[in-house]
Amino acid sequence: MKSRFIKQSLCALVAVSGLAGALTVHAKEQGDWLVRFGGSYISPKSNNHELVSVDGKMGVTFNFSYFMTSNLAVEVLAALPYEHDIELQGGTKVASTKHLPPTVSLQYHFMPEAGIQPYVGLGVNYTTFFSEKTVGPLAGSDLDLDDSWGWAGQAGLDIPLNEKWLLNIDVRYIDIDTKAKLDGTSIGTVAIDPWVYGANVGFKF
Fold first, then answer.
1. 19-30 confidence digits (pLDDT tens)
2. Mean pLDDT within 167-194
3. Cβ neighbours for 40, distance < 8 A, ≥ 6 positions apart
4. Which end of the chain is more exposed for a tag (fewer CB within 10 A), N or C?
5. 130 falls in which pLDDT band (50, 70, 90)?
6. Given 3-state DSSP classes, what are the helix, strand and coil percentages for the chain, each rounded to the nearest 5?
7. 47-95 residue pLDDT tens
8. Which run of H or of E encompasses 13?
9. Which domains does the chain have, with CATH numbers?
10. How far apart are CA 196 and CA 109, in angstroms?
11. What count of other Cβ atoms lies within 10 Å of the Cβ of residue 161?
């Protein structure tokens, strides 16, 4: 699913890049607000834990950016709750959890007046886990996942369509590690550390 989502996003980006070159350039300026909303695929790293692994998931994300200058912006990333399955290394589902990953980043926009506007960002992520459930071999056990603080990096492209609307594609790496307990006993740290691939529509005001 991840590869299909990435390919579709790249194809859409290529398709509109030619159109962007023909449009009147609409620059980002100091004091602008930018709202982007769309879908993101969270792809946890492999070998999350010696016993279990966390599956990938598609979800709804949105972010808000405020431009302190035409180049520098502060972005807040939010999402609807994601739900991930937790499986034994052999593939048997043993649990699930929901999480929210709010992230605050400082972005640098290289070419705020170009037809295609690349940017990078660096920030801090806070991930809270909730609604942990156990099934199968662990049914009836109590699973607890601690909240996580970590750094986050991103790179993206904005493609203005007119004075207000734009298309966006981005990729993020988020440092997410959670300490897990089963029936009150520590079973170690689960290193999720996902890559996040997003495609969005944006509105500037």
1. 444 455 678 999
2. 94
3. 58, 59, 60, 61, 79, 196, 197, 198, 199
4. C
5. very high
6. 10, 60, 30
7. 778 778 899 999 999 999 999 999 999 999 999 999 999 998 778 999 9
8. helix 2-22
9. 2-204 (2.40.160.20)
10. 20
11. 15
Enter the tokens of residue 84.
């991930």
- For 65-124, give the DSSP string: EEESSSSEEEEEEEESPEEEEEEETTS-EEEEEEEE--EEEEEEES-TTSSSEEEEEEEE
Query: Confidence class of residue 102 from pLDDT cuts 50, 70 and 90?
Result: very high
Amino acid at 33: W
d(CA 65, CA 75) in angstroms, rounded, equals 4
